[in-house]
Amino acid sequence: MPSPAWPAARSTAITSGRSWMYSPPRDPATEQSMHAAFTAAAGALDVTPTGPTVWGWHGRTLSRRADHLRHGACWLRLVSAPAGKQGGKIWEGTAAASVLDGTVSKPALYAVHDQVVDDTAYRAELTQYIDAPTCSPDPVVRSPLELPPTWWKQLRADLDRIATVDTDRVAVRQEWIDRVVPQYTGCAAPRITEWTTAHGDLHLANITTSGVILDWEGWGLAPAGYDAALLLAYSLREPSLADQVRETFGDLITGESGRAVMLVVVADLLQSASRGDHPDLEPALRRLLEGRP
């Protein structure tokens, strides 16, 4: 389920994939197979890898900067899944998001290459390389961050455009809301009546200082205002940043529908915290849940 600055910000230069880095697979054979599949994909797509290796969550993805004769600097990302179980929302998300190329600030998709080796399926995605750093090294912002008004204006315009995209992809389901909200907040689950298209994982480790939004695996329909609410929740440890989110997206996260989507997001992140993700965010989420600053 759903759970990238200026000099004041800490950031990383690796931004065309997930901006925070994980470890390789624990099994050396799996790591070796991922490298072999990556090399094969690079050959098939006519690119030369040039950047450092970047591993994704649990070693499920492997990414590197690569050079292409026509496109120039690119980002090559390889994702793996058991053969026969590839497909679905996450597997197809980056490719499906190409319908947004040229309309919102995101890396353009150049090519996709699929292969199956033994019992593992691999998909390689070649996208535009974004050289601007992400705004934060982690989804939870833990240090002061100042972004110019033009950055916020661009983000608001992008989220407004994303919300209007027609799609049958689903990022958040009512059935999930019905189960998780009572379990993690003790509140009755809201019945969502307005659904719009969302990025689905919007935080400042997925947005660059140039305003480019990264990581489109999970985009789809969600409660209206979901992206803004998620951005606010991840910003709670920095009150001035949270205030800026409220100023930019206040109409989406206030009122009855705004309270409902905030409740959904709080439940989402409390569930994640229960699994060990960003436990330091939980006190701020509880205060928000209780209506305290």
Architecture per CATH nomenclature, i.e. the level-2 architecture of the largest domain: Alpha-Beta Complex
Evaluate the radius of gyration. 19 Å
Secondary structure: helix percent:
25-40%
Structural class: alpha+beta
Instruction: Outline the biggest β-sheet.
Output: 6 strands, antiparallel
Ends apart, CA distance between termini? 27 Å
Look at the structure and give the CATH class of the largest domain.
Alpha Beta
CATH topology of the largest domain: Aminoglycoside 3'-phosphotransferase, Chain: A, domain 2
Residue stretches low in confidence (pLDDT < 50, at least 5 long) are: 1-14
Shape: globular
Strand content: 15-25%
Give the count of structural domains. Answer: 2
Mean pLDDT: 91
Q: How many helices?
A: 8
Work out the number of β strands: 8
Q: What is the N-to-C succession of helices and strands? A: HEEEEHEEHHEEHHHH
Give the structure's gist in a few sentences.
This is Aminoglycoside phosphotransferase domain-containing protein. Helices cover 34% and strands 17% of the residues.
How does this structure look, described?
- The chain is of the alpha+beta class.
- It has two domains: 28-128, Phosphorylase Kinase, domain 1 (2-Layer Sandwich), CATH 3.30.200; 149-289, Alpha-Beta Complex (Aminoglycoside 3'-phosphotransferase, Chain: A, domain 2).
- Helices cover 34% and strands 17% of the residues.
- It has eight helices and eight strands.
- The chain has helices at 28-44, 88-96, 149-163, 174-185, 226-234, 239-249, 255-274, 282-289; strands at residues 47-49, 54-55, 61-68, 72-82, 109-117, 120-128, 195-198, 220-223.
- The strands form two sheets. Strands 1, 2, 3, 4, 5 and 6 form a six-stranded antiparallel sheet that branches.
- α5 (226-234) packs across α7 (255-274) and α7 (255-274) packs antiparallel against α8.
- It is globular and about 55 Å long.
- The two termini are 27 Å apart.
- 46% of the residues are buried.
- Residues 147-248 form the Aminoglycoside phosphotransferase domain.
- It comes from Wenjunlia vitaminophila.
- InterPro entries: Aminoglycoside_PTrfase (IPR002575), Kinase-like_dom_sf (IPR011009).
- It holds the Pfam family APH.
- This is Aminoglycoside phosphotransferase domain-containing protein.
